[in-house]
Amino acid sequence: MSLPPLSPEQKIRPRRFELRMALIFFATLIPNGIHLPYFPLWLEANRFDPQQIAVILSAPMFLRVFTTPVITAFADAARDRANVLIALSAATTLCSAGYFLEPDYVLVLAVSLALTIVWTPQTPITDSLALSGVRRFGSSYTSMRIWGSISFLLANLAGGLLLARTGAGAVPAIIFATFAVALLAVLIAPRLGRPRVASPLSAVDIQEKGPKLLHPYFLFFAAGTGIIIGSHGFMYGFVSIYWKSVGIDDATVGILWCIGVGAEICMFMLFNRLFGSVSVVTVTLIASLAAIVRWLAYPLIWPLGLGIGGFVAVQCLHAFSTALVIIGLQKMIGESIAEERTGAAQGIAYFANGFCMAAVTLVSGPLYAQFGVDGIYFMVPVALAGMAMIALAARSTPKVALRRRHD
What we know:
By secondary structure, the protein is mostly helical. 77% of the residues lie in helices and 0% in strands. It is globular and about 60 Å long.
């Protein structure tokens, strides 16, 4: 069924809409580029053990799987999503100040849990504002969103350079400053009013237009991509700590993270040329194979004397082990799920990704404590499990998806 018509106010294009959204994407993803690689270093510098680090990193992941959909639904029902985004950004800046307090384990865990509640929903809300502009005014989503990836990459590099001069103790101050910058940026968020909501399809419509969300193809695919992404949990939680332990300086750690993100951006730019005619199942199987190779290679780089160049090569596999999974999942949803059900499909995929990442991050602490970097070998069977799920999805491929690929 069609969307309700736009009101006269909704037809008015905000001034410099694309520029404002690009700036918001840029500013709001800077904290991610600092927190992901360098927050574990701060935890280690404050004498938290690997098990405690794993809990501090994973507990917010479990929590946000449940809280983010509630807050984004509230944002959709609000008078304007921009107001919710501003409130969340202000709350995030305030919560991040909690890291200035004495770094007690319980306190840091509590701050991290509170932070994730107000921080995580900001990305989907920003996405929803950008997509409203795409639908209403014909804006280009990629031209706005790419600035978020660029800022993440630059934050990786700048963070490494700063920490090389200041040490890991400066991480809370840097995180707080980046959240304050993000707050200033979201103050210019375009006001678009409430989003339009499509009428729900009937069960008959769903059956005619594409597989139901409980179809094995979709469920196996969502589970498989979630598990493959989840296998990165050990790397995200402990690779910076490992690199530092073998004598790699902070600036080089930042560069290595930049290379992974840069490789991901390149894959987004080159995907259609390289894999445009390849089925989503094949693309995702390639991604799982790249993840397996990556987890087998990481512990061998330093002992074999391959040095920084070896880590650069392994980081470049991020283009395959992560970017191909993200693209493959979205392409699968576009091919096989009716348009008015894509929101529910994204929610299920988000849950699978978030839960798997949280579970793997939680067990990664004991693995790193016991085995060091060799614990990453345990990610190989995780990635194999994801590959098996994708293979099961291939056996359940619905005819409607096949027809659409050949139309």
